[in-house]
């Protein structure tokens, strides 16, 4: 294994190690842990860019079709589809055959 020498790596490894130990120890008010605080400041807007003067007013969603509802609906659909595939693989039959619908025999309509 190659040895890496970097002041960043040694501090990152030591802080991760001390943080992991902190989670394993019971709560101790006398325990001091070095915490790094990052301060993030927003950059100035480029020249020519203007902020909107008022917040846009959105209309009510039509029939309840909101973004969040559609996201959850699609997630439920994906879970159901994967579940259907798993059931078909386990029983080696299609879902329609399992519920009693005959498959592969045509429409049985006299011509």
TrEMBL record:
Q: What is this protein called?
A: High-light-induced protein, chloroplastic
């Amino acid at each position: 294994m190659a040895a890496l020498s970097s002041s960043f790596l040694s501090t990152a490894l030591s802080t991760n190690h001390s943080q992991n130990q902190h989670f394993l120890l019971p709560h101790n008010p006398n325990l001091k842990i070095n915490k790094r605080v990052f301060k993030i400041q927003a950059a100035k807007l480029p020249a020519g860019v203007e902020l909107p003067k008022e917040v846009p007013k959105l209309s009510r969603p039509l029939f309840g079709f909101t973004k969040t509802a559609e996201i959850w609906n699609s997630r439920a659909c994906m879970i159901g589809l994967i579940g259907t595939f798993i059931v078909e693989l386990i029983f080696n039959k299609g879902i329609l055959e399992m519920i009693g619908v005959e498959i592969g025999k045509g429409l049985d309509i006299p011509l």
